[in-house]
Structures are given as C-alpha cells and as structure tokens.
Amino acid sequence: MTSTSLTIAPGIYHLDPVHSSAGFTVRHKVSKFRGSFTELDGTLRVSDAGEVHLSGTARVASIVVKSGAMEADLLSPRFFDAERYPQISFESTSISVAADGAITVTGDLTMRGHTESVTARGSLGTVEDDGHGRRLVGIDLETIVDRTQFGISFVQQLPGGEAAVETDVTLNVELEFAST
Fold it and tell me: How many Cβ atoms from other residues are within 10 Å of residue 135's Cβ?
C-alpha cells in the first residue's frame, strides 16, 4: 500500500464502503473457495494521544459467492445462520503500527453470537489530503480463524476420509477510512 505518511491525525474516520472489502477463503476439497460481504460499516478513532481504535461490522445477508444455491446454504443454520445472527462484528483491543507501515490489530471478532480474540497483520497507509479536503487511512489485514470456534461446524468427509471443507478460514479486509 502506498503511503505519504504513517502518522494518523487525531479524529474520527468513517469507512468508505465503495473502496473497502471484506472476504474469506477456505480450502474446499482441492481448491480455495472465496466469498465476500458487500455491506460493511466501520469507524476508526484516533485520540489526541495517538491511541487507535477500530470497529466494524459486516451484514451476513450481503454475502456473495459464485452460486446462488451456495449463498443460501451459507446463510442457513448450517453455516452463518443469518436470521439469528445478522451481523459479524469486530472491536479492536490493541493496535500497533511500525515505522514501515506494518500494522498488527488484535480484537474481538463476533460471529454467530460467539466472540473470540483474533490478531490480524497487514499494512497501513495514509493520505493527508485526497483532493477533496479529507484525510484518508487505508488498512489491509489478514488473519486465520478456526470456523468451529464460532459454531460453524459443518463437516463433510470425502471417501478417503479427508475433510471436504477445512476448518481454518483466512479472513481478508481492505479498508479505506475518510475523515469527517
């Protein structure tokens, strides 16, 4: 990520959903299966002392995969159970940024009503003026979670005994925040 500055000016920054994405990748049999969520919301708060807090949500019903039937299955109680648990949320508990823009974010991820602490790593970039008088902050993060810890315990065995869907899921977010 290109950066003109690694200092984040104090203030409240709101997620730009047009320039942000949240997705997942999981091994399915012999390849990777990908999905994403199109309805995101988030806030980045930076105190005068430089403390950074990140929070966000993804609306489960906004899931997109390459099959409508598979989308319906993922929304069902076998997977995300969107009717009972309509959103996935995240609240940071600590954020550290290195001089080179490497960022580590630890926080509470809640899916299906269950919360686990996760740590994601990635990169941070800032722009002091986007040409419209706003400061921008970009954060790209990746982490791996065990889906069964969140109650997504679907199991299907292949004839040889291997799992059809792995339990480890890679979560990726590319977030752009703008000052208000």
Answer: 19
Bridge partner list, 24: 35, 171
R_g (Cα) of the chain, nearest Å: 17
Task: Name the percent of the chain lying above pLDDT 90.
Answer: 83
Question: Model confidence over 112-143: pLDDT tens digits?
Answer: 999 999 999 999 999 999 999 999 999 999 99
Domain housing 63:
11-179
List phi, psi (to 5°) of 68.
Answer: -60, -40
Residue 4, in any domain of the structure: no
Q: What is the dihedral of CA 115, 116, 117, 120, to 10 degrees?
A: -100
Q: What tokens were used for 66?
A: 């390459």
Q: How confident is the model at residue 2 (pLDDT cuts 50, 70, 90)?
A: very low
C-alpha angle 52-117-107 in degrees, rounded to nearest 5? 10
Query: What are the residue ranges of helices labelled H in 27-85?
Result: 68-75
Q: Give a yes or no: residue 5 inside a domain.
A: no
User: Helical H runs in 79-128?
Assistant: none
| CATH number for the domain that contains residue 157 | 2.40.128.110
Contact between 176 and 141 under an 8 Å Cβ cutoff? The reply is no
| DSSP characters over 54-82 | EEEEEEGGGEE-S-HHHHHHHHSTTTT-T
